[in-house]
Amino acid sequence: FGSSHCGSSPALGSKRAGHSRSPKFPFSFAKMDSNAPKLAKVETVLGRTGSRGGVIQVRVQFMYETSPELAGRSLIRNVKGPIREGDILALLETEREARRLR
Question: What is the C-alpha separation between 44 and 86, in angstroms, rounded?
């Protein structure tokens, strides 16, 4: 019952030296870093997997715009949530490939 936290927190209201509230973007599209997401287009939906069918297995093909070195390469990935052919995924990791459905 001691103290109540109804007011604004001092951490939210205070400004520290060297910190600004303006949004800063970590990259520009002119120069992409290696951690930037790579865009891949869904070619085919292979089927559902997972213990309850909550994961969809798809074959994707990388697009030239974000990764010229991967352009045209395709691999199989697991996707959670609604997806259909023609959708574009932003992949943070491009080395791993999902195991095929049995």
Answer: 8
In terms of DSSP H, where are the helices of 2-102?
10-13
pTM for the model = 0.62
Using CA atoms, how far residue 49 sits from 7, 28, 74, 83, in Å, is 48, 36, 20, 14
| Tens digits of residue pLDDT in 35-51 | 888 999 999 999 999 88
* Other beta carbons within 10 Å of 14: 8
Cα Rg of the chain, angstroms: 21
Q: Which helix (H) or strand (E) holds 12?
A: helix 10-13
